[in-house]
Amino acid sequence: MRAMILAAGLGTRLKPWTDQHPKALALVNGKSLLQRNIEYLQQFGIKEVVVNVHHFADQIVAALEKNKGWGSAIVISDETDAVLETGGGLIKAAPLLTDSDPFVLMNVDILTDLDLDAVFEYHDTHNPLATLAVSDRQTSRYFLFDEEDTLCGWRNIKTGEEKPATQPGSKNKKQKAFSGIHIISPAIFSLITLQGKFSMVDVYLDLMQEHEIKGYDHTGTRFLDVGKPESISKAEALWKD
What we know:
The protein is of the alpha/beta class.
């Protein structure tokens, strides 16, 4: 199995750290977010990892070289010319992932104890194009799912925007917060028509009309979006090892 860790973002929410460093190297009890997620993947036998880089890319490459990938085989997807967001970043890395089985795509700035083996088992059972880790927690933007946990929309509760446009019965759809972890079939690469800089949210909303995309609810597991300076102290209280 392989994985891709999205580490190219500017990390604007994590200023002032990201004025001089990439968010991937923000420390939680002496270990960077990147190290923690590489080691997290290793727990499930995943030791082949693609890491995309843009903001202070040289620091990430140097850390990986110094620490020998923390025991994993790391391949860099270089986005130093332009940051491509989650979707564009995945497409750029496609040649590094197309010959694999379903792979993990995850954000570098999350920490979790989600059981990836259970998510892979769910993915194998239902065989969707992608399985998205989601949970019941408060946020401003949600994916919407039907009674069979199949993706059917997206909602921003602050602005009232909904995609597709609000339809009768949409209030009855289950809204779940996305956790930044996907299990994706390589078949997705031949289906994505967007180019340049774009989000995986747009990819899923485009493909869900003709392809099944599932949500895996991991409510109750340990999870933290380490996107703001105050979240570092929360992370250090939860991840002490």
